[in-house]
Design goal:
Mean pLDDT: 81
Low-confidence stretches: 14-23, 134-142
Strand order of the largest sheet: 8-9-10-12-11
Structural class: alpha+beta
Order of helices and strands: HHEEHHEEHEEEEEEEE
Number of helices: 5
Radius of gyration: 20 Å
Shape: globular
CATH topology of the largest domain: Defensin A-like
Strand content: 25-35%
Length: 202
């Protein structure tokens, strides 16, 4: 049997979705608080419950989307930098599109599963499946240490979400406010979190 014809037949046999079904994914608006050089997201747990995902997974995705580091304590998260509600909304919208919504039927009835080392999104409503976006992997970089309080010569190879210069050193991605892509700068590492580091020009 022709695959396209079989697929069309399968879709034709699916029940029509009602407006209630398509709208039943109700994600709470992000609740943020500015705290000096940090921004708190106080309802990560509620957002995770609404989309049926692990809050740590959502927190990690938000960090990548914002181009920053942060800490998570089970319900509340804190991110380095000043972000507004629109920043969090965009990050969460991207998360739902990539890790929750079925790209075939548009429903949120999906599960994340590791299959042969690949994170897959499987739809329990229509049976469709696809790999989700790969996280950036540092495996091609050397495991060079970046230490807080030390100064390094850095080649700025990109620009972060907030306009900061971005450099790579060993397994670290380093954000340098005030630096521009194409520059080679001297920067002091002020803090590190995981494989992220934050520096200032000297």
């Amino acid at each position: 049997m022709d695959y396209d014809a079989a697929l069309d037949r399968a879709y034709a046999e699916l029940p029509d979705r009602t407006a209630e079904e398509t709208a039943r994914l109700s994600v709470p608006d992000p609740a943020g608080e500015t705290d000096g050089d940090f921004t708190r997201l106080t309802n990560v747990g509620a957002i995770a419950d609404a989309v049926g995902r692990d809050p740590d997974h959502i927190h990690s995705a938000i960090q990548r989307a914002l181009g920053t580091s942060g800490q998570f304590d089970g319900d509340r998260a804190r991110y380095n930098g000043s972000f507004d509600a629109a920043d969090f909304e965009a990050a969460i919208d991207d998360y739902v599109a990539e890790f929750v919504t079925c790209s075939e039927c548009g429903l949120p009835d999906t599960v994340l599963a590791q299959e042969d080392g690949i994170e897959m999104l499987r739809c329990q409503a229509c049976g469709a499946f696809r790999p989700v976006q790969k996280r950036s992997a540092p495996s091609h970089r050397t495991q060079e240490t970046v230490e807080e309080g030390e100064t390094y010569q850095l080649e700025i190879t990109g620009t972060g979400r907030k306009g900061d210069g971005v450099a790579e050193k060993g397994s670290y991605t380093i954000f340098v406010p005030g630096a521009r892509e194409g520059q080679t700068v001297t920067a002091l590492i002020e803090s590190t979190t995981g494989d992220l580091a934050f520096a200032r020009l000297v």
